[in-house]
Amino acid sequence: xxxxxxxxxxxxxxxxxxxxxxxxxxxxxxxxxxxxxxxxxxxxxxxxxxxxxxxxxxxxxxxxxxxxxxxxxxxxxxxxxxxxxxxxxxxxxxxxxxxxxxxxxxxxxxxxxxxxxxxxxxxxxxxxxxxxxxxxxxxxxxxxxxxxxxxxxxxxxxxxxxxxxxxxxxxxxxxxxxxxxxxxxxxxxxxxxxxxxxxxxxxxxxxxxxxxxxxxxxxxxxxxxxxxxxxxxxxxxxxxxxxxxxxxxxxxxxxxxxxxxxxxxxxxxxxxx
Length: 273
Fold this sequence. Notes:
The chain is mainly alpha-helical. The chain has helices at residues 24-35, 37-47, 52-79, 85-95, 110-134, 138-169, 173-185, 190-200, 209-220, 226-240, 247-272. It is built from 11 helices and no strands.
């Protein structure tokens, strides 16, 4: 069940003078990734085919993800009236496809699959919080706040199911940490890079993973502030079974913040090289 509807957004408050041109490409890319949520629900439905309760929860999750995509797309078309989301999304769906008929998790266990989903929701919750704080455009600020709240609820959904499976599969902290870090590293795979390409570059220009990753990440990482990394670190540590607050969290947050700043500088350098 949705916690909000697109009609609840105050679209009449859209202020074109407050649109940051550097943020528009990020919203276009995010719209396509979110709108593709049904594909991931199909994948999860195959992996958890013996768990009808979770499959139902995953289907409801996908409905909210699709709404996120629709809301972001509507805002992007207001910010750039010449942009056609339907055409861009068709390009994306044609060029980037995930395996939806998997019979087993690519993470090696059902607990691992849910850990990976927790990492995705940790990232999106932090990202939309950061994006909402980075923009002064009131409608995008509202949309990001609504999405970030959904993503945190999604984190809790997957976390609760992860705890249920963990009681059966007994996966250790190191294994859980390896899965979590592996999924975080996948943020630089083709999913976001190709979404950026389809949303912001013409079809006549060939897709180049390195260029599109640098273009997306260089902009996206700029919206984060230290407290966003701090919150995400706590969620990650909680997922893998480590204390989400305290000395360890402080150290990991500090390292994560420095790594993010370093990576952003490298991506921006790659764009001008």
